[in-house]
Structures are given as structure tokens and as C-alpha cells.
């Protein structure tokens, strides 16, 4: 069954009534949980914990891959040091000292936390109907051992099934040992660089990480995998279904092509969602919104179209 842009537009508009703000969201269709990578996907919109939750409810999305930053900010963490923008001069000695001091202040704050605050945060989201199924960590490979332990404890107390990150392949042996200690899968996110031995793009990269720890897993980005390998990730997902933490849903062209609205690229989104449904795979299908917003539209309307596309594929 195919869907025109007009069909998806109608479905998207239907998914954004004012009453959605009061209703509990439900985006588990045909046994497949659809979620959103937040706040990343909400480009240009306020990214506080409350704003994210309100947007999730409005979009009728009942599961999230949530970055750590809005959680810690909600709980009163000191703000991270803001480095100079890319393309500017190297940091001055004063800026480098500020970065080190900022990281140390945040580390001390983290290690002083009880897990009660994270449990309250989880309740806040779950009471509104949104599950935090994956917690995303930036630069976790640069954290001290006690901070890495903190990350796994936070994820458990937020109700997450797994954590996700983007780190060099050589660092996955260390993180895999922590994952084994905490008995929590780590999903390594892939992009399109098939030439770097440190990058996740080729199937062999994940297979190497798998060999380091039984808790090293894969967060397969359907679009990136298709664009980098010029083949659908379906066979990889089937073969390693017990190592998949979640999939990122986006549509890209092969041969490192651009991002497109769902249904216009080469990524077999519908086929993979239906495979997940048929085989009852438990992983979240996480929308990662990246294509350019068309003139006259906005981010929320376009994400709603993505949600509608996934729902139509599963119902």
C-alpha cells in the first residue's frame, strides 16, 4: 500500500488536534513501539524537559530516546561549559581552564545525586504516558569510571531498556565491560563513514564491538546504513536481532545521498517496520527527524507526517 504526500498531510493534521494536549499518547501500533529522538529531532524548538514532554504528547508519541542533558538540567545540574564555536580560534588557556573546571563541577554534582530525582523524573513522564526507553549519552567515552557507572544507574532509574551513544569503535571494549556489569545493552549509533576503522557504518564494525561484550549492541540508523552500504539493513537486523537496542527511522538515498521526507528516499522504512511487526521484535522504532523543512511548513508538522507514515505502515 502506498501513500501520497496529500494522504500523509491529512494524517499528520489529524494527529495534531488541540485535544491531543490533554490525551495520553499511544504510538504502539501493531505491537511496534514508535518513538522520537529528543530533543535532537525538535530542531530550533525549546528543549527543556517540560517542552519535550508537551511536544511528545502533542505528536501522540508514547516513547522516547532522551538525551541526558534535559534531565540533568531539570534536576538543577550546573550548566556545561560552552566551547568556542567551530571554525574559531583554539581555546585560550582561560577557556581551557573554564572547561576543565566546568566538567569537574558537573562530575561532582553527578556523583552527589541520589537516584530519587531520576525516579521522580521518570514518574513525571510516565504519568503523562511517555516511556523513556533509551537514554542517549554524548561523550560517554570521555567520562571517568564513576561517571560511567552513574550513567547506567540513571538509565535504569529512568526506566530505560538500553543506553545509546556515538563513540569510537576502540572505546567499546571499555564501555562494554560497564554494560556487562550493569546488565544493560549499549546501542552504538552508526553513520555513513565506511572508511574509518573507528566509525560505525559497515556491519563489521558492530560485529567487532559484539565480540568485546555480550552487552554491546547496535542502534541501527536505517537511513545511514542504507546510504553507506547501498543495501537495506533488514538482513543485518534479522541476523543480530538480539543485539539491537532500537532503530533510527529516517529516509536517505543510496550512495551517501541526502535525507528525504519519508517514502521519497531509498530506505525501506515500511518494509522494516512490518518485519519488526511480523517477527515481534521488541525494539523501539525511533524517528530521527533530519530532512529540510519545506517552505510553508514547520518542524512539528513534518514530524507529525513522519509519525503518520509509520502508523500507516503498521495499521
Features:
315 residues; alpha/beta; TIM Barrel; 8-stranded parallel β-barrel; two-stranded antiparallel ribbon; 11 strands
Radius of gyration: 19 Å
Q: Which architecture per CATH?
A: Alpha-Beta Barrel
The termini sit apart by: 11 Å
Order of SSEs: HEEHEHHHEHEHEHEHHEEEHEH
| Unreliable stretches covering 5 or more consecutive residues | none
Structural class: alpha/beta
Arrangement of strands in the largest sheet: 2-3-4-5-6-7-8-11
Rounded average pLDDT = 92
Sheet with the most strands, sense and barrel status: 8 strands, parallel, barrel
Number of strand segments = 11
Strand content: 15-25%
What does this structure look like?
Helices cover 42% and strands 16% of the residues. The strands form two sheets. The chain has an eight-stranded parallel beta barrel, surrounded by eight helices. Strands 9-10 form a two-stranded antiparallel ribbon. The model has no long low-confidence stretch (mean pLDDT 92).
Amino acid at each position: 500500500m502506498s501513500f501520497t504526500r496529500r494522504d500523509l498531510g491529512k494524517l499528520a493534521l489529524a494527529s495534531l488536534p488541540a485535544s491531543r494536549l490533554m490525551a495520553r499518547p499511544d504510538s504502539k501500533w501493531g505491537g511496534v513501539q514508535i518513538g522520537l529522538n529528543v530533543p535532537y529531532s525538535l530542531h530550533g524548538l525549546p528543549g527543556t524537559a517540560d517542552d519535550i514532554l508537551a511536544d511528545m504528547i502533542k505528536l501522540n508519541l508514547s516513547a522516547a530516546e532522551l538525551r541526558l542533558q534535559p534531565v540533568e538540567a531539570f534536576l538543577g545540574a550546573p550548566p556545561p561549559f560552552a566551547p568556542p564555536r567551530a571554525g574559531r580560534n583554539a581555546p585560550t588557556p582561560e577557556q581551557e581552564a573554564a572547561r576543565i573546571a566546568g566538567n569537574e563541577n558537573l562530575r561532582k554534582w553527578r556523583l552527589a545525586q541520589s537516584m530519587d530525582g531520576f525516579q521522580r523524573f521518570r514518574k513525571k513522564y510516565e504519568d503523562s504516558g511517555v516511556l523513556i526507553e533509551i537514554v542517549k549519552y554524548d561523550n560517554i567515552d570521555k567520562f571517568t569510571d564513576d561517571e560511567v557507572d552513574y550513567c547506567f544507574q540513571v538509565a535504569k532509574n529512568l526506566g530505560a531498556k538500553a543506553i545509546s551513544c556515538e563513540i569510537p569503535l576502540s572505546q567499546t571494549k571499555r564501555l562494554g565491560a560497564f554494560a556487562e556489569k550493569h546488565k544493560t545493552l549499549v546501542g552504538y549509533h552508526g553513520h555513513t563513514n565506511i572508511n574509518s576503522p573507528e566509525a560505525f557504518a559497515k556491519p563489521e564494525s558492530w560485529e567487532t564491538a559484539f565480540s568485546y561484550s555480550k552487552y554491546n549492541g547496535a542502534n541501527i540508523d536505517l537511513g545511514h546504513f542504507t546510504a553507506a552500504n547501498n543495501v537495506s539493513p533488514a538482513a543485518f537486523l534479522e541476523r543480530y536481532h538480539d543485539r539491537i537496542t532500537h532503530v533510527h527511522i529516517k529516509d536517505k538515498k543510496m550512495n551517501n545521498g541526502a535525507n528525504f521526507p519519508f517514502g521519497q528516499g531509498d530506505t525501506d522504512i515500511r518494509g522494516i517496520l512490518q518485519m519488526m511487526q511480523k517477527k515481534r521484535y521488541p525494539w523501539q522504532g525511533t524517528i530521527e527527524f533530519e530532512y529540510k523543512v519545506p517552505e510553508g511548513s514547520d518542524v512539528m508538522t513534518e514530524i507529525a507526517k513522519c509519525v503518520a507514515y509509520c502508523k500507516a505502515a503498521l495499521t
